[in-house]
Protein: Xanthine dehydrogenase family protein subunit M
Organism: Trinickia symbiotica
Amino acid sequence: MYSYSFDYERASDAQAAVASLTADGEAKYLAGGQSLLPTMRLRLAQPAKLIDVTRIAALKEIRVDAAMVTIGAAVCHADVAEHFDIRRVLPGLAELAGNIGDRQVRARGTLGGSLANDDPAADYPAAVLGLAATIVTDRRRIAADDFFVDMYETALEPSELIVAVEFPVPQTCAYEKFRNPASQFALVGVFVARHADGVRVAVTGAASSVFRSTELEKALTADFTSAAARSVTIAPDGLNTDLHASADYRAHLIPVLAARAVERAR
């Protein structure tokens, strides 16, 4: 049976977590563990130490007002989905969180862990990018447009810790995804958000990382209707082809899902 030893540390605050990781380059932060632990079981990662950040009170906070929803990095998906004020002020985000994985995943997986991992088919990156959110770390603020770099790659520095995410409240928004029935990950997911200065459309599951569709944004800023979304043609260049779907199929799905999101957001 495969096994190896590692140390476990429960961080008392963000500063202590960062100091511990800085002191040990072979350590990793542990949030919900929904991505890290399977990676360890597959021997793709062997951290010398796991620094648990899920008990840090400041990372579990949720603050909601009419203009902004701020969610701590250690808040689990289920808590976002079920939070009364998030459901009232930003229902599109709550609905997205409520459809991540299954009940067990939603009870353990965290917002910060999802963003730091940046799985190309994860749901939260689409909301972060579509809502023009700001990722707040222990040392700086990173705009969503600057955060996602490539497959499993973000702008985070080696020991940098996400502490919260600030979501501006749009005029309306919605998320639609065509899911893998086994994993519940998005073969394609589209988050549409109508802001005062225009529409943002973020696409996940279709490429190596989440991205904005400028073609759909232009069409929907001019005419926020499902017909306008369906009229857009997305080129398959640069989109994923794998055992689940071809690039052409994903290109076809993007405007279809955008149209459905617009219908739900109106």
Notes: Residues 188 and 242 are 13 Å apart (CA to CA).
